[in-house]
């Protein structure tokens, strides 16, 4: 199980990462869980440091939309660990927000 502190905010971030959305970036995650970016970005960094999350800079023309975004995804180990952790901590509540059969896309992520 995790070797890091798991808060309610961490569980909220994991639920969003399990949602299957292919374009998850820090601000979008923060808005979805209604938490400040000052708590979401450190959680994402901690999850990445512990090998649950991978991230990459968004590709494409920045002039079309603005600044590049850093996109976040659970890696295969993080995916299974997040499911287990959410089931243990939130039980049936978690199944309302995420689909346990979902598989994220891994285009270009290492």
Automatic annotation (TrEMBL):
Write the protein's name. DNA-binding PadR family transcriptional regulator
Task: Output the superkingdom of the source species.
Answer: Bacteria
Q: What is the lineage of its organism?
A: Bacteria, Bacillati, Actinomycetota, Actinomycetes, Streptosporangiales
Q: Does the keyword Aminoacyl-tRNA synthetase apply?
A: no
Matching SUPFAM superfamilies: Winged helix' DNA-binding domain
What are the alphabetically sorted keywords of the record? DNA-binding
Q: State any single GO MF term.
A: DNA binding
Q: Give residue ranges for domain Transcription regulator PadR N-terminal.
A: 13-80
By its UniProt entry, which Pfam families does this protein fall under? PadR (PF03551)
Quote the InterPro entries the UniProt record gives: Tscrpt_reg_PadR_N (IPR005149), WH-like_DNA-bd_sf (IPR036388), WH_DNA-bd_sf (IPR036390)
